[in-house]
Amino acid sequence: MTDKEIFDLLENKQSRERGFSVLVNQLKERVYWQIRHMVLSHEDANDLVQEVFIKVFQNIDSFKHDSSLSTWVYRIALNHALNFLQSKKRRKSLVFSSLENSMLENLKSDKFFETNEIEFKLQKALLSLPNKQRMVFNLRYYDEMPFKDMAQVLETSESSLKASYHFASKKVQEQLLEEENVKLELTD
Amino acid sequence: MENRENPFKVPENYFEELENSILSQVKKNSKKRYFFSEIKTVYKYAATLLLLLALGGIIWWSIPTNTINNSTPQLAKTTISDKKIEATQPIEKIVKEKKEERETIITHVEGAKPISSVSTIQQPKDSTNDELKLTEEELQYLEYYLQGDIINDYLTYNSIEL
């Protein structure tokens, strides 16, 4: 189903639930992984993905048609994940502990994370990046999202996203080399 | 979806069940939202009303009012002149000054020189009558008061020393 068809279903109050169901079915996996790569924990990602779709349903009337429906939904999802990390960081700062360390600790014992040493080191290196830079890296590295689409989702220019990705991958590489002298090939 | 090797995993059948759990959450949330949005509206109106009442109250109480000193002792049915009385001025002098404004003075002040009677007493500035003629009865009433401590009380109250 195209964006227009889904939106026509959503606009009509009688067919709204059906349209929403189609939208969820189309986007749920992608939205989940985008959030999961940011928050790392399955439980947090599960809660957030549901909150995101609730927000989408409640604000469907405010969709301005300035982008595709999927872009709009991804934007909500990524902002929601960033806000979640910010508030978690604020709470952690009150007890004098670092959010990144606590996320890494949880990752070690997470049954939904493959306890691969290299992957763990990669996540550790990624957690050293600022959240927005990490997001750009995740969208490019894991989702292989084109920079053009990313620019629409994040409402940033393509050039700054390319620069951000370049610096992020360089920093991650340095960190990994520093730890184990392992080379990770990152494609631009 | 994932082209690179994904170290993250999900529970079995997670995505199949995800859609149903999202739809049930959305339904639950839309009912809760409607209820809370109604209460929110009521609170909003109540808060606005309280604020308006509070502002009105503040404006009302801050309006300056004329503070007329009701405790000023009144001499019979006369009104005391608004003219400021010097604290060090002896009462004879005050009375003499008043004499110039009066036709006759009949007031007798205890401890002071007798003065001639007045048939008119000076009116306050805002008075509509230019002269007030006292009857014999009124004068006697006035004399009665003046024989008492009313003058002393007045002078004490206004911090005037003889």
> How many structural units, i.e. domains of chain A?
2
DSSP summary, beta strand count of chain A? 0
Q: Portion of residues in helices of chain A?
A: over 70%
CA-based shape of chain A: globular
Helix percentage range of chain B:
40-55%
Largest sheet of chain B: none
Order of helices and strands of chain B: HHHH
Oligomer category = heterodimer
* CATH architecture grouping of the largest domain in chain A: Orthogonal Bundle
Into which percentage range does the β-strand content of chain A fall?
under 5%
Number of domains of chain B: 2
Q: Determine Rg of chain B (CA atoms, Å).
A: 41 Å
- Head-to-tail CA distance between termini of chain B: 107 Å
- Looking at CATH, the homologous superfamily of the largest domain in chain A is RNA polymerase sigma factor, region 2, helix turn helix motif
Continuous helix count of chain A: 9
Unreliable runs of chain B: 73-87, 105-124, 126-130
Describe the structure.
The complex is a heterodimer of chains A (188) and B (162). Chain A is mostly helical and 188 residues long. Chain A folds into two domains: 1-113, RNA polymerase sigma factor, region 2, helix turn helix motif (Rna Polymerase Sigma Factor, Chain: A); 114-188, Winged helix-like DNA-binding domain superfamily/Winged helix DNA-binding domain (Arc Repressor Mutant, subunit A, Orthogonal Bundle), CATH 1.10.10. Helix content of chain A is 74%, strand content 0%. Chain A starts with a helix and ends in an 8-residue tail after the last helix. Chain B has 162 residues and is mainly α. Chain B contains four helices and no strands. The chains are: A mainly alpha (188), B mainly alpha (162). Chains A and B meet through helix 2 and helix 3 of A and helix 1 of B.
